[in-house]
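User: Hi! I have a protein structure encoded as tokens and I'd like to know what sequence might fold into it. I'm fairly new to this, so please keep things simple.
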């Protein structure tokens, strides 16, 4: 009996990609091996995080880095670092910070459920900009000057959610913020691949950048990366690590946390509840090495094969299929299945739900159901899983 059988939980076929709700991406064998090896010996977490910092710096081009409990926790810690910097009194007070600078300027159109992670630090968000294109009321979106116009006596920094189509360009926003000495915190959770985005994003001069470790990087689902400016990463580390130590005996690796810059030892901070285990750190670093080496690229072709199999299975059904390739050679393609809901007599919502309830249970992406479209994201599929998706989809579209 495997562990899920013992627990009475039925595994599913994940055709939705590395979403948190479905447990994220499968970890490669090398990553699982690093996890179990790390579990057999004890290390100082501070020293392990310092080694992680050096590895993250090497692989992303950032000055320093920290393994966090997901990108969401990187956002909380990043905001806390920008608010408190090296001020121990402020660290102690967080998330209560109404009596010091705690406002982050953000484009109104970049707000999402994930900004709760930023607000959890105590930060308050100040919205700017209008997306007149989506509103069908004009031709422009948020502009760099709007960030600058919102800066004031309570400003702590800027939050920016990076995407391939984000407007304005991050570099222009960083320039406006730096003119006034403010830091920029970037949510780039799912923006690699392509690998070149590590450099593209960090070379804008953004002060802190957050990535998910459990999406395309394929580390443990519960990991993330906070990277960027050394002093801010150190502040985040101080607010996350177990700080129960004597100041006289405390020896943090100087490149990671410069003891000279700190006026004493903070107590356990805002991030103490966001701990990351030695096993998770070792596994994430192994996954980051694999990802950065291009070890996953060969699978893009395999994944396309899966999508072709699934598309072929529904050729004569009331649906039109379309494989959307990404030309970076690193990002898996997606399959869109546009249903003829009238001919089927069923909506995409109903078909999606039936797939979830079938045998085996198949979860396709529910992102475009309201346009009558099922999306198959192959990143978490095996050959076996893909043939189940093909068969179940054909069955549903024959009913
Ligand atoms: C997935 C995601 C997150 C959260 O990442 P976790 O690693 O799951 O914490 C944050 N922001 C965006 C835009 C995301 O897509």
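Assistant: Happy to help. Inverse folding works backwards from shape to sequence: for each of the 399 positions I chose a residue that suits the local structure. Here it is:
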């Amino acid at each position: 009996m495997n562990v899920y059988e013992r627990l009475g939980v039925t595994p599913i076929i994940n055709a939705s990609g590395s979403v948190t709700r479905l447990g994220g991406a499968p970890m490669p064998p090398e990553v699982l091996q690093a996890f179990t090896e790390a579990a057999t010996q004890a290390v100082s977490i501070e020293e392990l995080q310092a080694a992680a910092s050096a590895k993250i710096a090497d692989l992303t081009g950032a000055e320093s880095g920290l393994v966090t409990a997901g990108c969401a926790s990187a956002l909380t810690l990043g905001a806390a670092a920008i608010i408190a910097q090296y001020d121990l009194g402020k660290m102690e007070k967080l998330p209560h910070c109404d009596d010091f600078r705690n406002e982050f300027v953000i484009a109104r159109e970049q707000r999402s459920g994930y900004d709760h992670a930023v607000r959890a630090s105590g930060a308050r968000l100040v919205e700017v900009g209008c997306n007149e294109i989506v509103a069908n009321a004009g031709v422009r979106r948020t502009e760099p000057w709007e960030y600058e116009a919102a800066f004031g006596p309570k400003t702590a920094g800027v939050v920016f959610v990076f995407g391939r189509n984000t407007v304005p360009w991050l570099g222009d926003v960083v320039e406006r913020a730096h003119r006034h000495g403010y830091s920029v915190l970037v949510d780039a959770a799912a923006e690699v691949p392509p690998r070149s985005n590590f450099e593209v994003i960090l070379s804008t001069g953004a002060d802190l950048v957050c990535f998910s470790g459990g999406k395309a990087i394929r580390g443990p689902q519960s990991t993330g990366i906070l990277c960027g400016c050394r002093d801010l990463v150190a502040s985040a580390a101080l607010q996350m690590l177990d700080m129960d130590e004597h100041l006289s005996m405390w020896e943090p690796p100087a490149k990671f946390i410069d003891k000279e810059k700190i006026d004493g030892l903070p107590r356990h901070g805002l991030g103490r509840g966001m701990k990351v285990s030695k096993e998770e750190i070792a596994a994430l670093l192994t996954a980051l090495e694999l990802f950065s080496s291009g070890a996953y690229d060969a699978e893009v072709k395999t994944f396309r094969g899966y999508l072709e199999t699934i598309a072929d299975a529904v050729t004569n059904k009331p649906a039109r299929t379309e494989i959307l390739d990404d030309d970076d050679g690193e990002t898996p393609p997606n399959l869109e299945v546009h249903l003829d809901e009238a001919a089927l007599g069923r909506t995409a919502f109903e078909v999606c739900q039936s797939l979830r309830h079938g045998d085996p249970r198949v979860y396709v992406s529910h992102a475009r159901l309201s346009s009558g479209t099922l999306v198959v994201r192959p990143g978490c599929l095996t050959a076996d899983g893909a043939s189940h998706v093909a068969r179940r989809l054909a069955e549903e579209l024959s009913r």
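A useful reference point when you look it over: The pocket of pyridoxal-5'-phosphate is lined by residues 20, 70-72, 114, 161, 187, 189-190, 212, 214, 224 (CB under 6 Å). Feel free to ask if any position seems puzzling.
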